[in-house]
Amino acid sequence: MYGVMVVEDEKIIRTGIVSIVERFGDGLYVKYECANGYEAWEKFQIEPPDIVITDIVMHKGMTGLELIEKIRESGSNVAIIILSGYSEFSYAQTAMRYNVQEYMLKPVNVKQFALVLEKIKAELDAAEGTKENGSQTVIGKNKIICKVKEYIRANLDHDLSLPTVAAKVNISVNYLSMLFKNETHQKYSDYITNLRIEKAKHLLSNSDFKIYEIAELCGYNSTKHFIDVFKKTMGVTPLQYKNRGSA
Question: pTM of this prediction?
Answer without folding.
Answer: 0.54
